[in-house]
Amino acid sequence: MSEDDLIIGIDLGTTHSLVGVVDSGFPIVLADETGARLLPSCVSWPLRGSPLIGTEALRTRALAPRRTVSSIKRFMGRPFADLTADECASTPYSLVPGPRGEILIRIDENTQVTPEDVSALLLRRLCDIAEEALEHPVRRAVVTVPAYFNHAQRESTRKAAEMAGLTVERLLNEPTAAALAYGLDRLDESSTVAVYDLGGGTFDLSVLQMRDGFFEVIATAGDTRLGGDDIDLALARYLADELHLGELTDSEAAVLLIRAREAKEALSGEDLVVVRLPFFRAGNSYETELSREHFERIARPLIERTAPICRRAFAEAAEKGGGPVQRLLLVGGSTRIPLVRETLREWFHLEPDYSQHPDEAVALGAAIQAGMLCGRIRQILLVDVTPLSLGIETFGGLMNVIIPRNSTIPVKAGELFTNAVDRQPSMAIRILQGERELAKDNWQIGEIVVPFTPGPKGSARVGVQFSINRDGLLEVLARDTATGTDHLLEIRDAAVDVEDAAVERMISESVDFAFEDLNERVWTEARMKSEELLPAVDEALAAVGDRLLPEDHAAIATAAERVRAVLGGPIRDARALKAANASLDEATQTLAAVLVEAAFEGS
Amino acid sequence: MTNPFAILGLPESLVLDPVVIETAWRDLHRDGRDHAGDTASDRNVARAILTDPVDRLACWLGRVDPDGEPERGISANLMDLFARIGPVLTTIDALLTKHRKATTALARAVLAKEAVAAQLAIQTLLQEIQPMKGALTDRFAEFEERARSGDCREAQRALGELKFLKRWEEQCRERLLALLGT
Fold it and tell me: Is residue A277's pLDDT more than 80?
């Protein structure tokens, strides 16, 4: 085999990453020199020397939380303005806006890195693992991405691979990859399969039709900000509250998060765990018991966020003639949580299929796709879709859809543009992805500039072709109908010309002010939440209050009183208000469930 | 514009079985022409057009009656439907906005009753639209017959109405999907 033919498959995950290849017709995951197949997606920058990658980096989380970067995938291809205050506050390392409005990770005064830098280091390591295992140089790869990643997030992933010295032969959607791994030895079967992929940071649901080796994705939906990380964080917050830990240092927060995650993992097999924090603070140790039941109360709201996404994808698949979903395939580490399996069974009346290794299926699928591209696997054909509608901004700030979501890719569509005034040299067009009617509610992918030949108004005619390739990446071609020449239009970063005054201010202000600013943002967010909750409590109690137990009433009244007290307090204590909101939110879960139930009874 | 019928190697007929379109598209994929650059997106676009009856009618009319125009006026029962769709969509949009702004389970639960009612209203509308569309697409064989004697007026009128019905159906379906998310 020549080195040019070799293509590896990479699963670049939020929590860990893997590399695989097809060997004698079978996909395999490659191990590093210690025999490990999972590379923790973690990079740390020691005070001296080169960055640590993987397990070594993971060890520095508690010691140097601000120098250790994990879950970087969540920040790929997003502008800084897109971050919520909560996201900034919950990351152990510090996120700052870059000169172009992009996200930078500030390790210290002298070191700032981009999300792509971090991913490139991980990809390079995976490539090294493959080269060592295969004893061949590796230059080409299939890299997986969440199906719901937009153009910018995909482009950012491709760029990271390029920085790592890899040519990306295909960006493959993760649930599609898992379906390939599942379907490889079931080629005679004919069925409609839904892949439920809940990982560390992202959630995807794809519905595929498999028939005679033909794999066709018919619908996909997801949330690129929902995963096991969110459950860890919710659990860590609960523990901090339960143990009355108050204000946490960076290191304490990092340790607590690690323990929360361990407790979550243990509770997949056990009914009760003891969370221990030995010598946590000033020599003091803490411990508390956590039952699976209690953990599930914390995790349930997050898992429930996947339900509407599934329903949506199922409805769209049925609409496209996919027929009923026959198999529900579970992949991603978070699907180990028993509650996920139980709720899915309950919601969809389908027995979840966990025949695939939740951590390895995606990497195996990436290896299969790599094998298909270099001719090692010939019996499969694969067709995927674009997850998000693509459009442009039109008059009145509306989005005009050009390519609808769930279109089979590659796909293209043309639009004709003309000059609106005499001698107009060019026209800027904002490109959007998303399903909302207003342009501002969608992802701003970037801007293209369509050049016009100077002339009276309406004389210029430029046809613009928007195409989405097999990687889910957008390409824009302009054709001047007068000259008949085509040329590729550059999609300029939407972040470059952010009009958002808040962002510009944040960029110009020094990092010292960032904390105060953050407190203000957190307070505003929390206040809005209080103002939403308090009237909702009154309304809900008026409607179904008689169905609650007296202790529920008391808990709600106490929690509501606490929110009112902090809200009307003399200082703007953002942290206290957030905590008070969280207790009221928690205290009203049953009330909310009863209210929803009542709504369906009436129908 | 390229001809979707030709791309998939299908006869230029208005009456096409979806299975036939699907098979033609799959066979071309299997042909191994998968790597021939542009042609894959042409095939995918062609399939999308021919699978949708309204787009297929528009495309077919563009070939048999290139100078014709779809009829602009709409019938009385379409007008009546339009008058009823608008307010329902507006109510749902207001509800969805409230739902989107809600950050807590309780605030969302408060909206549940209204959401259930809205879902019912939309489903009722969709159930009205579908037979209206069906009544027109059922006449495709007739349109094709008439076109042989050079008469495309009925088909053009149907296209005008179908375009409205398709748009309303899409708008209703979008709202229904959004409501599924509540």
Answer: yes
CB contact under 8 A, B104 and A409: no
Answer yes or no: are the C-beta atoms of A54 and A69 closer than 8 Å: no
What residues of A are in the B interface, CB distance below 8 Å?
214, 301, 308-309, 311-312, 315-316, 319, 321, 381, 383, 407-413, 435, 467, 470, 528-529, 532-533, 536-537, 539-540, 581, 585, 588-589, 591-593, 595-596, 598-600, 602-603
- Residue A581's alpha-carbon distances to A339, A558, B106, in angstroms, are 25, 12, 12
Residue of A533, A541, A556 to mutate, interface with B, max B Cβ within 10 Å: A533
Amino acid A499: pLDDT: 46
Q: What angle do CA A74, A29, B29 make, to 5 degrees?
A: 80
Query: Global pTM?
Result: 0.90
How far is residue B53's CA from residue B59's CA, in Å, rounded to a whole number? 10
Q: How far apart are the C-alpha atoms of B47 and B27, rounded to whole Å?
A: 12
The predicted-structure confidence for A27-68, as pLDDT tens digits, reads as follows: 999 999 999 999 999 999 999 999 999 999 999 998 999 999
Residue A217 has, within 13 A of its CA and on its CB side, a CA count of 31
Residue A363: per-residue pLDDT:
98
Give the span between the Cα atoms of A172 and A363, in whole angstroms. 10
Reference A309, options A431, A398, A424, A227; nearest CA is A227
Q: Which of A231, A203, A432, A470 is nearest to A312 (CA)?
A: A203
Give SS3 for A401.
strand
Each residue of A67-117: pLDDT tens digit? 999 999 999 999 998 888 888 888 999 999 998 889 999 999 999 999 999
Q: What is the dihedral of CA A332, A334, A340, A345, to 10 degrees?
A: 10
